[in-house]
Specification:
Structural class of chain A: alpha+beta
CATH architecture of the largest domain in chain B: 2-Layer Sandwich
Number of strands of chain B: 14
Number of domains of chain A: 3
Radius of gyration of chain A: 27 Å
Largest sheet of chain A: 7 strands, mixed
CATH architecture of the largest domain in chain A: 2-Layer Sandwich
Helix content of chain A: 25-40%
Strand order of the largest sheet of chain B: 4-5-10-6-7
CATH class of the largest domain in chain B: Alpha Beta
Oligomer: heterotrimer
Structural class of chain B: alpha+beta
CATH topology of the largest domain in chain A: Aldehyde Oxidoreductase, domain 4
Largest sheet of chain B: 5 strands, antiparallel
Number of helices of chain B: 11
Distance between the termini of chain A: 60 Å
CATH topology of the largest domain in chain B: Uridine Diphospho-n-acetylenolpyruvylglucosamine Reductase, domain 3
Strand content of chain B: 25-35%
Chains: A alpha+beta, B alpha+beta, C alpha+beta
Largest interface: A-C, 57 and 56 residues
Order of helices and strands of chain B: EHEHEEEHHHHHHEEEEEEEEEHHH
Number of strands of chain A: 32
Amino acid sequence: MNDMSNKWIGARTIRPDGADKVTGRAQYSADFAMPGMIWGKVLRSPHAHAVIKSIDTSKAEALPGVKAVVTAKDFVPFPVDKPVALGIQDMRWMARNILAHEKALFHGHPIAAVAAISEEVAAEACKLIAVDYEVLPHAIEIEDAIKPDAPILHDFLKHEGKPSNIAGTMVLKTGDVEKGFAEADVVVEHTFTSRPVHQGYIEPHACTVSYAADGRVTIWSSSQGQFMVRAMTSLLTGIPQSNIRAIPAEIGGGFGGKTIIYLEPVAVLLSKKSGRPVKMVMTRDEVMRATGPAPGSLMTVKIGAKKDGTLVAAKGEFYLQAGGLPGSPLRGPVGCSFAAYAIPNILSTGYDVVSNRSKVAAYRAPGAPHGAFATESVLDEIAHKLGLDPLEMRIKNSVKPGDKAIYGPVFGDVTFVETVDAIRKHPHYTAPLDRNPRPGVKRGRGVASGFWYNAGGESSVQVNITEDGNVVVTTGHPDVGGSRASIANVVAELLGIDHSRVSVIIGDTQTIGFSNLTGGSRVTFASAMVATASVEKVVGQLKDRAAKIWNIDAEAIKWEDGMALPAGDNAGKFPPLSLKELAAKANEMGGPIGTQVQLNTTGADPGFATHCVDVEVDVDLGIVRVLRYTAAQDVGRALHPSYVEGQIQGGVVQGIGWALSEEYLYDKNGRVDNAGFLDYRMPVCSDVPMIEALVIEIPNSKHPQGVRGVGEAPIVPPLAAIANAVNDALGVRFFDLPMSPPRVTARLDEAG
Amino acid sequence: MTEIRYLAPSTLDEAVKAFAAASGAASILAGGTDLLVQMRAGVRQPGTIIDIKKIADMTAIEDLGGGAFRIGAAVSGATLAEHPTFGKAWPGVLEAINLIGSKQVQGRASPGGNLCNASPAGDSVPAMVAAGAVVTIQGPNGRREVPVEAIPAGPGRTTLTPGEIVVSFTFPKRPKGSGDAYLRMIPRTEMDIAVVGLGVNLVMEGGVVKEARVGLGAVAPTVLLVEDAAKALIGSRLEDAALEKAAEACRAACKPINDKRGTIAYRTKVAGVLLKRVAAIAAQRAGGN
Amino acid sequence: MSKLHVTTTINGEPVEYLCDASASMLDILRGPLGLTGTKEGCGSGDCGACSITVDGRLVCACLMLAAEAEGKAIGTIEGMAEHGVLHPLQQKFLEMAALQCGICTPGVLMASKALLERNPDPTEEEVRFWLAGNLCRCTGYDKIVRAVMETAADMRETVR
């Protein structure tokens, strides 16, 4: 099944959802409306940190046009001492993030919500809600939150026996790290910081919710998982899952940020109270203030090596910002930073730090880019010190199949060296670089690598043969960027029919079996695996039907080019039966043809990536621009190469923004000062060059098509690759992101 | 939720009358690229919006000959860019106006709006200050003309008196050997607000600067005309010493703040860097005339 | 509250609507007129998802009052494909996978069409700077820029 001569797998087909998306017909979350619909709006905290002493909603409720007001009291309570896990989330924190309970923990924290006949009336009503706050001192950055005298956000959080903003720790170790450093010829240690960055999806969070008179709820919203929407809404409202139908709208970008919810449970209770469908749409300002960015970080990484470049010891301390409530992705830096390298002695420690900013959410390879920024910068310096080619040094230290990963399992396939080699042999790496093209302008080149676990998990796929002999495939995963196209390729290939005869749709929670989130580079892996199993079952049914018609054994029938054929001469001589012919006879031969397969998929091997970048620095102004970028990654198998390349290109450009321009800026009162696209500064089209994606396809032997996973790994290397290139250009290493013009200028002045 | 009125008068007199009558509760709508954002953010809540784009004078571009132009205050950057001669005479002014926002924003944003929004970082203003453009204003007490640099009074404030509307900009004749240029420092390549913006307008003869004007933005509460920088350039052949002296004058003129877009130290340094770069472009254009 | 009555043309069809003076063109397109193909990403002119044309001029619908449409010709993404046939840009975007989530796509297409009407042979740099007002967070812009340039080449070929 994994043949490079495949007709559809690996073909650049037109996506099934394409025409609607280029004509404006595709319905995203804010595009939906219902008869009798009213508007919900959230009142948000004006303070970074405050005790909520009381909330008086009476004036708001009295305003003409207001239909309902809710506060945290209306929701199912989740006491702080009783963990309730839902996937990687803890409902104690989700409940408090969706509506503040005891305290407002960040500027923009939801306090109450109103539903009214128009957005204007709802906004007016929010102003009439009287909240008595006791404003407390705040801490924004990690450095401030971990000081001994820092304002404590949560009394119930203890670290080393004392109240602390450190909400949790994670430690991975192997060998004896101190012994390892003692054996090293060269040891490099640096401390790095990075600021939180937002996923930056262009579609703000939105939903339309109907709570019907019979208690049944319908939710239209975009997310990275309709089942997550249903489960969280159910837990927070107490409504059973069987009564909540979560319909996935088209999703306008997520990148991890839509793996949790903000509005849906609030809209459900507003709808229940008002008896009307309720629509809620965040403004960009709300998205920036109150939805989850990736954490900021404070990291110290120390690595020791022998003269020949053999790495002997590595130690990492990774403090990650959780935001106002616990839950930063520690397994990202702690587990991924050293995972690609066979280092005998490792101690990797992570600290989850709460502070007065919006609660973090997943963002593409959560936590891994941070760790790679530190680790890959230190490795670059070691290579320089030892006079080694940085790529050679990486190849020399690559983990091998059978090595035990620091995060637990034993490595199966390891394709790290192949990604390094792809860059080493690419013309980019050896192209001449004009280091000083004009006065005041310097250029440099940098490389870095990255690791991501990849993932499998639950997936459900239905394959139904239509009465006219075509195919409808239903999956349970929102399509964030081409997964329908990939599944259409797989199904067309396996059934041996033209791609245009396969339609792929995303089912809602009540029409398709449970399917886990779209995230972690898992969806194509999982859904292609389950679609394959589903198609195999359907092919079995088709053979059975042909067997009945021909009155021979089903084992004597093969399926080829969309037709049932006698497997050999012994089977008898019959003219082939096409899918269309079998579909036409379906009812008389036993009924409709189709199936649903549900699996908890396993076997997603890790993803490796190695990147090479050229930068140009305007020395007087401190501006860094990326001139050329090449990204190599082993994807296992590219079911649809265009969307695989697109994942790599998109991830790289997000990494460029993270490295050079994106950051949250706070005023002295702890309020976000740049809650919009204008001053948050994501890369625009003219900021970046073409991104060359080197798609390496070494099939994953544990997957029917060889898929490994794509989306996360591309954002892991860019921060370090760019920092290494800037160092190459200027001879000055940068330890703090973003490398924005004022920072670059100040660092150059400091370095003389 | 007070009711807002929308008026689109077809004559200037009507507009002035309505604007004066609203006594401060009205906003003039040209391109609206600042006004609508401010209304949405709740920063401005006008009782009346007066759309001036139906007034012919407001959107006219007149080539007065010899490089002189009169352009209506509400002309969009995109319209100005398509004019056959304006950009040849005033390339620096045109590039400054067309650095305001995206192509979409340039389809609406106007120099009049940019000036009256009174942001110290407005891109068109330093270039128009350097150009020596004159603003024609109409108000309840009639018409008056002032240099561009006389309009801004501070962030978000102008010297316009109640009921006064900016009607047009008049650009002087271009002697032989003229050239202007504008550059701004922004972190990205587009879509940012200037951290520092600087316009230079030169008249050169035989490689020697005869006349110079320097406009500097985003480093003080208002856009500045930096006369000391101009003095340093006049009479020079833009030698390093003269450029350094002019750069120093620009740095000395800076009274910036630390904010989300830049630090005091950074802005001050950049003002000097930009002076040298912009003067070089203006000189090249002057030589090409 | 008294509303303004506006008579305009949208995608070639005469349209009338009532609006508040403060309503943006985007509010009216997406709300009463049901033309939700024009997207709202920021409401402040920074993302370009609401790009439309007014008398052929590319603008952000969020930065224009609905009242200003009186007597104008408005173009939106819903009018880009004519008689059920995709515009060459729409077709090329599909063929070259120049969209992932697709939320920025209507705006990018409207902006790209406006570019090619003015400049049938843009350089990569011209495409990139023209599209600087259209944020895309998925694609890294690579395939968008290539699709616009390839469409331009095809359209030049067709004209010849």
